[in-house]
Specification:
By secondary structure, the protein is an alpha+beta fold. It is built from three helices and four strands. It has a four-stranded mixed beta sheet with strand order 2-1-3-4, sandwiched between helices.
Length: 88
Amino acid sequence: MKAFILYRRDSEFGRRTEEYVHDYQRTRNETLEMMDVDTVEGTTQAELYGIVAYPTLLIIREDNQLLKDWQGVENFPLMNELAAYLAS
């Protein structure tokens, strides 16, 4: 499994999203990828998975199928819940 966040860096939720990622990396010692939807790569990923609300945290299976997503930083999972998804 892999996880990444699609977000807009210069939005009202950009800083809170970056803080979530920083906290996750600090507490779990694991990297969580972020993609700005205002880049070509971010736009491509958003279109591929049908994401229209930002920020969105996605869990992707090894076959690149979307397993789970959380839209809105206030709805992001607890760190342990995210780690459990990534460990399975």
